[in-house]
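User: Hi! I have a protein structure encoded as tokens and I'd like to know what sequence might fold into it. I'm fairly new to this, so please keep things simple.
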């Protein structure tokens, strides 16, 4: 039984992890948080002093994920998307959050100064949506609002319907 691969992307704090974990649970799919995977496997190529965070080794991440992605049924969660092979994903969801919600979420994570401002600007300027549109076929890239618990439920229902339809069409 073939199952789709899904990419959840968007600015940090938009709710990718919450949505991804719940979606994987409901759909019986594999959830992969690329940030957590990189931390566990130390898939880094340095440290960014300005932002106070490690720099992802994208090639090693691709190598690590390749076999899992070819099996299908994977939900990938990461705040960047331009380095993943286009062939991996059947659909891409870019989560979007209003700045007032996003600011509070990032501040509660300890983001401050330049890191906080740059992430808010990233959302204002739709940076990750544009990155997704340039990296994947336009028809597979979709924006989803992610502000409230109601948005989360609506997104879960919508994506579950899409998964069910994809499985009917592809099996």
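Assistant: Happy to help. Inverse folding works backwards from shape to sequence: for each of the 171 positions I chose a residue that suits the local structure. Here it is:
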């Amino acid at each position: 039984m073939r199952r789709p691969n899904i990419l959840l992307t968007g600015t940090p704090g938009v709710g990718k992890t919450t949505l991804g974990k719940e979606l994987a649970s409901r759909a019986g799919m594999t959830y992969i948080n690329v940030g957590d995977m990189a931390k566990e496997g130390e898939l880094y190529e340095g440290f960014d002093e300005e932002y106070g965070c490690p720099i992802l080794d994208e090639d090693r991440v691709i190598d690590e994920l390749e076999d899992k992605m070819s099996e299908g049924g994977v939900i990938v969660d990461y705040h960047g998307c331009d380095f993943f092979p286009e062939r991996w994903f059947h659909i891409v969801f870019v989560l979007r959050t209003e700045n007032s919600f996003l600011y509070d979420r990032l501040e509660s994570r300890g983001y401050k100064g330049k890191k906080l401002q740059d992430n808010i600007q990233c959302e204002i300027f739709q940076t990750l949506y544009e990155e997704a549109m340039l990296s994947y076929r336009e028809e597979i890239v979709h924006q989803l609002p992610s502000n409230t618990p109601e948005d989360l439920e609506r997104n879960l229902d919508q994506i579950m319907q899409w998964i069910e339809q994809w499985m009917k069409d592809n099996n």
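A useful reference point when you look it over: The mean pLDDT is 97. Feel free to ask if any position seems puzzling.
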